[in-house]
Amino acid sequence: AGARDDTFNVLDLAEYTKNRPWWRKVFGPSSGSSAEKYNVATQLLLGGVTGWCTGFVFQKVGKLAATAVGGGFFLLQIANHTGYIKVDWNLVQRDVNKAKEQLKFHSSGNKMSPEVKSRVDEVIIFLKKNVILTGGFAGGFLLGMAS
Q: Where are the domains of the chain?
């Protein structure tokens, strides 16, 4: 049988993107963080505004959730007191104790799975690269929670 000579064309992505202006427009000239393109004041403003919006939403949702949980518990107590429902408190206590034991068991190991560890490492790298943006976000978040 005849020898078959297969040739493959290799596309060098780095060389390809150097010659494509649309690629640079979409993905930016540097491979670093997108915040590096902005000056310090802009980064603080962007971080502060997004942080304030996030804090404001967290505050509103937190109040709504607390009201719903508290109101639900209050209605259950009224229904239990008036006889509409009967709560087996021994069963509730047993389930709470079982949940406590499971939490103690899982927290005693103190070992993170590799997937979680890699995600945590990614977040830390992002925070280090974007210290100014993150600082603005944290300050804005606290202001949003307070307003």
A: 41-107+115-146
Q: What is 4-56 written as a DSSP string? A: P----PPP-HHHHHHT-HHHHHHH-SSSS-GGGGS-HHHHHHHHHHHHHHHHH
Q: Determine the residue type at 110.
A: N
Q: How many CB atoms lie within 10 A of CB 133?
A: 26
The position carrying tokens 């047993």 is: 94
Residue 95 is predicted with a pLDDT of 92
pTM of the predicted protein model:
0.46
Q: Which stretches of the chain drop beneath a pLDDT of 50? A: 31-32
Distances (CA, A) of 36 to 15, 18, 22: 24, 20, 20
